[in-house]
Specification:
By secondary structure, this protein is of the alpha+beta class. It is built from 14 helices and 14 strands. It has a six-stranded antiparallel beta sheet with strand order 2-1-14-13-12-11, with helices on both faces. A five-stranded mixed beta sheet has the order 9-5-4-3-10, with helices on one face. A hairpin with a 5-residue loop joins strand 3 and strand 4. Helix 1 (6-15) packs across helix 2 (36-51), helix 6 (186-197) runs antiparallel to helix 10 and helix 11 crosses helix 12. The chain is elongated, with a radius of gyration of 40 Å.
């Protein structure tokens, strides 16, 4: 006799497509080449295996299954135990099973059942193996376990997070630890600016003439007043002016001498001061000619008297440097450029360049609306990771939301309120808008919230193929955050905050990228 242990019954449960037992679907066995007795016996055999427990049920139990199956065939699969039905079917089943035809069919049927079972088991195990293999390809979970994986060098001072297109976290390490985000903080600053100003916003600069024929310039923090822009402004002014005496600079839209935490006293451009009225990011690009004379390294930018004086004091040979550390002097440099470009167009000032304010009796002559939208400004800020531009936007944002004059505190308040009220980030610490300060603190989970909100604007970031990112670097700090798109353009999110010098951020990023199938 055939022993029907638990594994055998489990296999046949699989064969029944989850319908279970004891009910048997007769439609699965109805074929034209089976006669009536064959149908009865086949269902009897399955019933015998599925519903009769025990190591050796014996022939009497088998006759019971035959009787049951006969009734099932007549009643469309309904199970009903009737003593009279059992007695009537038992003799018929016994005669059939002893016949040569019955023995031959039993062997064939058993072989077919075993063959079908093995096929189904192969499919099930094949699918299971495929799923197991796909799970193994879900890094960094697997990669992090390899001794040589760069992810193993992430210390307790660092943080890493990878999330899927829906924002669900795939892998994380120290994701709640508040880290120094460095320049990746610019993404949050940009997000707050888009929220309050809109991507089509344009900065403005106003020009007035007072009753004494002095020309006044009032700045509103435009971060992209470059030499080429000042030339266009001079061209527009030249057609509106008969002449002017003094050039008066009004930079009161920002308070003077705003100190940005983290900014040093070097001449490097990343330490450039901010102000309501500026030119060329408050920097000068110069070189020395064959005679050793200081000249401008940019054909569109003249060497003004103020810039020449400062460069001689520095004693440098070439490069891009900042000229000063306070707002008064930065406005003066912008004013000298205006005078120079107006002179080239026949409008020569009769007085000097000085500071002042626009009064109620002054007449508005011209308003320059930037040729760059906020979207374009942000794109350039990200491309060059420009700290000056980020904090210009921050202070201007504070003045716009909370009223002039713009201050660091107002700008920080705007971004902090946005992070709390819109992004629901309650543990963030913001000291300024560029990420240059080590007082900024943000967790990887917090940055994930920023990235998810910024996703529609990710084209503003530096990108290589399907990778859009912002990186940051301070001494002993390396960060990177952004998006890795799949083949359908759906973004995966990643955040790498390394606040120790033991890990290589490029290796970690490549590990993350390759593990997502974009290597």
């Amino acid at each position: 006799m055939i022993s029907t242990n638990y594994p055998t019954r489990f296999v046949f449960a699989l064969l029944s497509h989850g319908h279970g037992f004891p009910k048997i679907e007769l439609s699965a066995f109805r074929a034209d080449f089976f006669d009536r007795i064959t149908k009865t016996y086949m269902i009897s055999f399955l019933s015998y295996i599925l519903i009769i427990p025990g190591p050796d049920p014996g022939p009497d139990r088998f006759f019971f299954s035959v009787a049951l199956s006969s009734f099932c065939r007549a009643r469309a699969g309904r199970v009903f135990e009737s003593n009279s039905l059992l007695l009537g079917c038992r003799a018929r089943a016994g005669l059939y099973i002893l016949s040569r035809k019955g023995i031959s069919y039993t062997i064939k049927l058993y072989r077919k059942i075993i063959s079908d079972t093995l096929k189904r088991i192969a499919v099930i195990w094949g699918a299971a193996f495929l799923g197991w293999a796909l799970c193994l390809c879900q890094p960094p979970l697997v990669l992090a376990g390899q001794p040589s994986s760069p992810l193993n060098r992430i210390s307790s001072q660092d943080a890493l997070l990878v999330a899927g297109p829906g924002g669900h976290v795939i892998y994380s390490k120290n994701e709640t630890r508040k880290c120094v985000p460095a320049s990746t903080l610019k993404i949050l600053t940009a997000l707050a600016a888009i929220h309050h100003l809109g991507k089509s916003h344009r900065f403005r600069t106003e020009f007035y003439q007072d009753p004494d024929q002095n020309l006044k310039v009032k700045g509103y923090g435009d971060p992209l007043l470059k030499s080429e822009v000042w030339q266009e402004i001079a061209q527009a002014l030249a057609s509106r002016l008969q002449g002017f005496k003094d050039l008066i600079l009004d930079n009161t839209y920002f308070v003077h001498d705003i100190h940005i935490p983290g900014v040093g006293s070097s001449t490097n451009p990343y330490d450039a001061p901010i102000g309501a009225l500026c030119a060329n990011f408050n920097t000068v690009f110069f070189k020395r000619d064959d005679t050793g004379r200081i000249v401008s390294a940019e054909p569109q930018t003249p060497m003004t008297p103020f810039a020449l004086e400062k460069l001689r004091m520095l004693g440098s040979n070439t490069g891009r440097v900042i000229l000063c550390q306070n707002g008064h002097e930065t406005a003066r440099y912008a004013g000298e450029l205006v005078v120079h470009f107006l002179k080239e167009r026949g409008k020569v000032g009769q007085g000097r360049v000085r500071e002042g304010v626009v009064g109620p009796g002054d007449t508005l002559v011209y308003t320059y609306h930037s040729i760059f939208t906020l979207e374009q400004v942000l794109k350039e800020m990200f491309e060059f990771s420009n700290n000056f531009m980020a904090n210009q936007i921050l202070i201007a944002l504070g003045a716009r939301v909370h009223g002039p004059p713009g201050t660091l505190a107002k700008g920080v308040r705007v971004v902090s309120d946005y992070a709390r009220d819109v992004l629901h980030l309650y543990d963030i610490e913001i000291a300024e808008g560029s990420g240059i300060s080590r007082k900024n603190r943000l967790s990887a989970l917090g940055m994930l919230a920023v990235l998810r909100r910024f996703a529609p604007h990710r084209a503003l970031l530096v990108h290589e193929g399907g990778v859009f990112y912002k990186s940051g670097t301070l001494k002993g700090v390396k960060t990177r955050a952004g998006y890795i798109e799949d083949r359908s353009g759906n973004p995966y999110y990643f955040v790498i905050f390394l606040n120790s010098s033991h890990a290589d951020i490029d290796s970690i990023f490549e590990c993350v990228k390759n593990s997502l199938g974009n290597g």
